[in-house]
Amino acid sequence: MDPKLNPEAIRARRLTGMAVFGFLxxxxxxxxxxxxxxxxxxxxxxxxxxxxxxxxxIKAPRGTIVDRAGEKLVVSVLAESxxxxxxxxxxxxxxxxxxxxILKIDARKLLERIQVAQGLDPEGxxxxxxxxxxxxxxxxxxxxxxxxxxxxxxxxxxxxxRQESQRVYLxxxxxxxxxxxxxxxxxxxxxxxxxxDEDLQGRPGQVRVLTDSRRRGIESRIEVPAQPGKxxxxxxxxxxxxxxxxxxxxxxxREGAVRGSAVVMDPRNGEVLCMSSYPSFDSNExxxxxxxxxxxxxxxxxxFEPGSVMKVFSIAAGLESKAVVPTDSIFCHNGRMPWFGSHxxxxxxxxxxxxxxxxxxxxxxxxxxxxxxxxxxxxxxVLHNSFGFGAxxxxxxxxxxxxxxxxxxxxxxxxxxxVSYGYRMSATTLQLARALSVIANGGLxxxxxxxxxxxxxxxxxxxxxxxxxxxxxxxxxxxxxxxxMEGVILKGTGKLARLVSHTAGGKTGTAKxxxxxxxxxxxxxxxxxxxxxxxxxPRVVVAVSLSQxxxxxxxxxxxxxxxxxxxxxxLKGIPGDLPEQLPQETPPLVxxxxxxxxxxxxxxxxxxxxATETELVVAPRVPDFRGKSIREVMVKSVETGxxxxxEGSGVARWxxxxxxxxLAAGRRVKVHFAR
Amino acid sequence: xxxxxxxxxxxDWLLFFTALIxxxxxxxxxxxxxxxIAEFRFNRDHYYFVLRQAxxxxxxxxxxxxxxxxxxxxLRSPQWAFAGLGVIIFxxxxxxxxxxxxxxxxxxxxxxxxxxxxAKPALIVFLAWFVxxxxxxxxxxxxxxxxxxALVGLAGAVVIADLGTAIVLVATTAAIFYLxxxxxxxxxxxxxxxxxxxxxxxxWKPYRLKRLIDFIDPDYKxxxxxxxxxSWLAHANTATVQDTGxxxxxxxxxxxxxxxxxxxxxxxxxxLLYLPEAHTDFIYAIVAEELGFLGAVLLLAGFLIILYxxxxxxxxxxxxxxxxxxxxxxTSIVFQALLNMSIVLDLGPTKGIxxxxxxxxxxxxxxxxxxxxxxxxVSERVNEx
Lengths: 675, 385
Fold this sequence. Notes:
The complex is a heterodimer.
Chain A: H1 7-37, H2 41-52, E1 53-58, E2 65-66, E3 72-84, H3 92-103, H4 107-117, E4 137-143, H5 145-152, E5 159-169, H6 176-179, E6 181-182, E7 188-190, H7 191-195, H8 197-201, E8 205-211, E9 217-224, E10 232-234, H9 238-255, E11 259-265, E12 272-278, H10 298-301, H11 310-320, E13 329-331, E14 336-339, E15 342-345, E16 352-354, H12 355-360, H13 364-374, H14 376-386, H15 415-420, H16 429-440, E17 444-445, E18 451-455, E19 461-463, E20 470-471, H17 475-490, E21 505-515, E22 520-533, E23 540-549, H18 553-572, H19 604-616, H20 630-640, E24 644-648, E25 651-656, E26 669-674
Parallel strand pairs in A: 2-10, 24-26
Antiparallel strand pairs in A: 1-8, 2-3, 3-4, 3-5, 6-7, 8-9, 10-18, 11-12, 11-23, 13-16, 14-15, 17-20, 18-19, 21-22, 22-23, 25-26
Helix pairs in contact in A: 3-4, 9-18, 11-13, 11-14, 11-17
Chain B: H1 13-40, H2 48-69, H3 78-98, E1 106-107, E2 112-113, H4 115-133, H5 141-159, H6 163-180, H7 184-204, H8 206-216, H9 221-226, H10 231-239, H11 244-258, H12 283-316, H13 320-344, H14 362-380
Antiparallel strand pairs in B: 1-2
């Protein structure tokens, strides 16, 4: 204190000091205000926005899948899900009892989950992890309306019901493997649901909600409207899918098949009319109870060695490369053929067969002989480039297999023979259907397609562009092969595939199943059949395959083809091209021709079946006319009832068909005499 | 009544309108900040808080007019000085017994009364009388000791529940004695005593210490070094009802979001239960959020007008009692306002103290109005000189 000043002056000075202090303090406050509201404004506003607003996703309803006629196959409906708030849950034991009895879930597991969420130890006492104090725990997603009503009646504050969209597969197991499934978030995880996920999903919208600190909404604004998923129409005919699923399942159960698949395609445009797998599953069941092995869409994901059905394509390769013509005689080496230092054998044995006879009777050695004339490169070229073996079909389904077909320079010596009758390569059922479409279509390759139209952004139907059919085969080759395939059904191994009112062509295939672990061919077969109908203007192509059967394809897969093709033709409204006739007796059984595995002697089973064959066969066997005089031949002809056509004079030198084979009805044996 | 020259019978209109505007503005801000809190937190209708505050404001205005009409010089007597002090101390002791939880409120059927708020005018009247009486011997122990005892008694009674008000009481007393000519020795002693008192008050209640630590050492680096097991922190956390670091953060966000011109009246968002005590101790943050830098500075300017005009009365007042009354009232209101703003701006540790005339709270408003009434009464009876 300054002694010179009087007390009044000191007081005035002190008061001024206090006032200055006050104003300085106020200046600091102004500076601080300016700092927070000027330079820091943007940053703090961002902080505020982040805290005060919730960005919520509005789920877009998932698109509907319909079949080609517009029949709804898969739709999304709202379902409720139950969650609990473990913080509010005071007595977990009672809660668990109520929940487990109504929702039929494992009480012990639920109690454990609640205790973990509450941060308690398994006895439910000591805090194990105090930080673990969840306020939200799913109990069961997508509960039924009845369950929801019963739970809501309790009015517990710890229960939270949330609306979720649920996928409903209206036709249950029908085409389940094709349609696939979605996960809990309604994202496709299999089948069409996965491959068309982008279209079906739609785009979720965004809503900005101003909330209070307890996350209660005050006001909301839609920032991005949700865009619902598009409706997608498949080329599938669900009625045909029904028949096809049934027929495949019945055949599989009857024959004890473990797996099977079938495809029906329109050969003119590649539209897949149905695609079945066995065993199947019900997409509506919760995924926990589903055996995932059954989810495979076997028609595209599981390639197999097709066996004799490949002969169609190998012989077509022979025709295409002009190595043979249908009337050529092929020597089938009487069942034992020397082959690059080893022997190929088959049973029953054939001598001379025309090219078409090789196909009818499914002669391995005959096919090998044709393949020899064709040459490895030509064989591969036609199989790969024209028929698409070893290349994916581009149908766009998940996990599609392209099968396998090694290029010829990778083939071992003489391996082309095995390839020619369907071993050492593999193909899916869909690939077989596509390859056969080339023949049915007069040599044009079509790309298999599954999507008929999509809803475009403006809501109209938008047909998807697809590859125009491409010529891959001369028309003559296709038509000659078609006619030969008709013979298979009329005269050869495919008699059980004969349709009542339509002409058809087809081919059986019975392939031994390779056990990759034991590195041997097992005694189970893959029985398959490919065929088309009607002959004059093929409208459906059918490929059926049944795995792990004990019988030959002629008895296993051919009837399945017959039923599926009939259903397809009926549903498509294709008029019959055969004269109407009374229902026939069951066609006579024909001996099974089982393709022996490559390089191995014929198996005992085939011998057994061949033995029974003579009793069953109605068609006469072709006698051996060779070395006989004209008179002797005539006598033999009358005895056996085999009609003959005689050429030349002297001693019989060769005959067609060769001796030992079955003579198809209405066919005559040509006998050539020479001196 | 004319003792020292002419007395003008005209009150300070600037001061009067400033007070009136601040009270009205306070009502608007209480409505803006409390309407959603009333609905969401207390399940009342929007007008719950503002209607209560409006009735308090009506009473406050009435008392303000009464006090300004009333000649303040009639309070210049030992009866008034000691009666006021005695009643307040009695009420404080009574509330200590009655409100066993906070020792703060008398809960009456329709409203609650916070007696500590009324300690301010009572102490100011007492000090003004006392300093006037002892002005020639301000540095005598016979002056200092009774004053210290009175202050310690009152502040001690207040501090039990309400440290903020106690700080204001101490600051006001210090200002009056400093002004009256307390010498440097006593000033230093008083300053040291205040620090000691503050430290004890802080350490006594863990939440107070924690608020201080939150301010000085927000990441607890030092604290964890001293107390590695964090046991003290856990103890303090259980003792603290609300996270005070969170208070400061929310407050800063509100102010910053306001920017220069604010989000607009009623448009603030931090009051959606993000900012605790948005309508009471942290109402200034809402002002800054909704009315921006401009509004916040204007409100501050209102208190600076009170500071300027109040301190001016020291030179104008017709008697010694009026001088100290004016300085005491001005200091207590402005000091509390600046303290509140500083806390809201995170310039000091979080301390529950309302913004005078603005914050929700009837006792605070009425007490401030009585004080301002005294100030206006002084302004009405100034020397013509």
